[in-house]
Fold:
Amino acid sequence: MKRLWNALISLQLSLWLLALLCLAMAAGSFLLKGEQGAAINFMPFFAWLMQTPVSHSWWLWLTLVLLALVVITTLLCSWDAVMARWRRIGFIALIAPQLVHAGFLLIVAAHLISALGSSVQQFEVHQGELLQLPDGQPFGVAAITVQGSPMGMPLGFSAELVTDLRNPSQRVTISPNHPWFSEGYGVYIKQAVNAPYPRALLEVHREPGAGMALSGAIAFVIGNLLVLWLRSKRDGDMRGKTDGSADEETTD
Structure:
């Protein structure tokens, strides 16, 4: 049992699993194409997975299995490290690697949540058109603006949205990389044209795991920075001891 436990918490096993995970996703990047490849971007991941034949989605099932094994090894490694080092090392030295692990686990959990409950919708809209978010909240498109160069090349575009139809003066302007967020939904403008009349392509996203993914990324970064700081501090202490020993030998 001890040999099995050591194998499950070993770094070598994690590296092999990560290598296989990369190979599975690399295979999928070449295999996923056509209508099925496009559909995965416009529906919840697990809904797409259940509707797609295994002959086309086998690499994703393999990816999920490998990812689950990586999660298990991460949890076991964290448990073993905490139990073995509890009250034997400083708090920062104990918690830093666990922050890295926790960040990774939060990111994985966030993607699983989004895979179950995310949504993407696209609408071609015109000025003055009324729309609804998936939760039923109405909004209107007050104006669509396209900036062009003297040569007729598009330079940028935006849309002015009425976010509260009871108060038409309550408006927000969206542009590429500046969406409007409402109750977990993000409204993005993807394209806009003036001719023959102003119209735009809007995309409505819902990513329920976004907040958790951000928390995981922050924990992951902080954990890595602490690990680097501890290692640099340890290396500095070792160099100090080596220099001190050399000085004593010189004095003798």
Remarks:
- Residues 92 and 226 are 8 Å apart (CA to CA).
- The two ends are 53 Å apart (CA to CA).
- The mean pLDDT is 87.
